Each structure stands twice: as C-alpha cells, then as structure tokens.
Amino acid sequence: MVKVCRSVVAVVAAGMMSVAVQAAELNWQLAKDEQGVKVYLAKVEGSKYKAYKGVAVMNTTLARLVALQEDVSGSCKWMYECREQKRVAQEGEAGVVYSRINTPWPVTPRDTFTEVVTEKAADGSITRRLTGKPDYQPEESGFVRVSKLEGFWQFVPKGNGQVEVIYQVHTEPGGSVPSWLANSFVVDAPFTTLVELKKLAEQK
C-alpha cells in the first residue's frame, strides 16, 4: 500500500517542477474550442494514447472550486463517465482516491487508484498532482485497472471574480481499448468534465 505522508516542501518543489517540465515537453494542438472550454491534445513518446489538456476560465471563486472537488463522491456527477468515486486514504496534503469509470459495451469498465497531492503557491493558485497507483489494492472483479495515470488539476485566480482551471492527464488504460474509443475519450473527457464543472461552479 502506498505511503501518502511526505514532506510538504519536497512535494511542492517536485510537483511544480514536474508540471513545468511536462508542459514544456509536450507539443499541444488545439482540438476543440466550445462553450468556454478549450481542449488540447499532444502525443506522448512511447505511448499510443494522447495526453489531453482542458482549459476554462470560470466566473467563480477558488473556494467554490475546491469545495466541489473536495466532495469526492459528489464530483462523480460532473466527472466524465464516472460511475463511482471515493477517498480511501488521506494524510496531510496527500490522499488516494478510488474511481470506477464507465465504458461503452463491449469494453470492460475501468477503475483506478489515484494519489492526489495538493500544492498551494504564493500567488494563491492551487495545483493537485494526479498519479495512478495501479498496485495500491488488488484488482476488482469486473474491472480493468488503469495501468498508468499522470496529470494535474490547477486553479489559478485571475482577478475580477474569475479562476482559470486547467485539467491535464495522460493515461494508459490497460487491457484492449479500440482506437475510436481512445480518440473520443481524450477529447470528451476534459471537455465534458470542464463544461459540467463550470455549470456548477458558476451557479448563483
């Protein structure tokens, strides 16, 4: 079982460095720009699956966004194809979340254990690094474990009651996934997730 406790200073330093390096290395191409959400895709060396990045500026507060994300079970309502989600560990700024993900027939549903480490920067922005932990617990019957997941959420206050939200992920879904499903997922996942989050975050 992965240990979630770690030095906050080391987490922040390593996390911000990994986010900066990852963003610099990937060649992002705009794939969709609708409803206030931009989706970018990038090839990842050594993988047949593309990374995705969704970006949206929302008329809301940082506190509202954090509250929506902290409701781990409730966030399934706005996360793309999320069937079930729960927090299974938390210590300080690091925790582990278990998620079950719907897939169209006949593809077997996926599940994942994701370590989530929260970092708070001096400018008020919040970054949550996401790292898949496929061996955190034994595989569940009826699900294929996502073999690799890396990414982050980032909330950046922009002033005038606005927050920029960035959602970036690259996964290796495990098992066999048809190309049509993989190609649609990398666009639909960030787009639908941010559209639904935007609706909730901007509710008066």
β-strand amount: 35-45%
Low-confidence stretches: 1-24
Structural class: alpha+beta
Let me know the average pLDDT: 88
Annotated CATH architecture: 2-Layer Sandwich
In angstroms, what is the radius of gyration?
A: 16 Å
| Count of beta strands | 10
Tell the overall outline: globular
Question: SSE order in H/E notation?
Answer: HEEEHEEEEEEEH
CATH topology: Alpha-D-Glucose-1,6-Bisphosphate, Chain A, domain 4
CATH class: Alpha Beta
Q: Assign the CATH superfamily.
A: START domain
Task: Enumerate how many helices there are, as a single number.
Answer: 3
User: Mind summarizing the main beta sheet?
Assistant: 10 strands, mixed
Q: How far do the termini sit from each other?
A: 41 Å
Total domain units: 1
Keywords: Signal
Signal peptide: 1-23
Pfam families: START
Domain START: 28-204
Structure description:
This protein is α+β, with helices and mostly antiparallel strands and 204 residues long. It has one domain: Alpha-D-Glucose-1,6-Bisphosphate, Chain A, domain 4 (2-Layer Sandwich), CATH 3.30.530.20. It has 3 helices and 10 strands. The radius of gyration is 16 Å and the shape is globular.
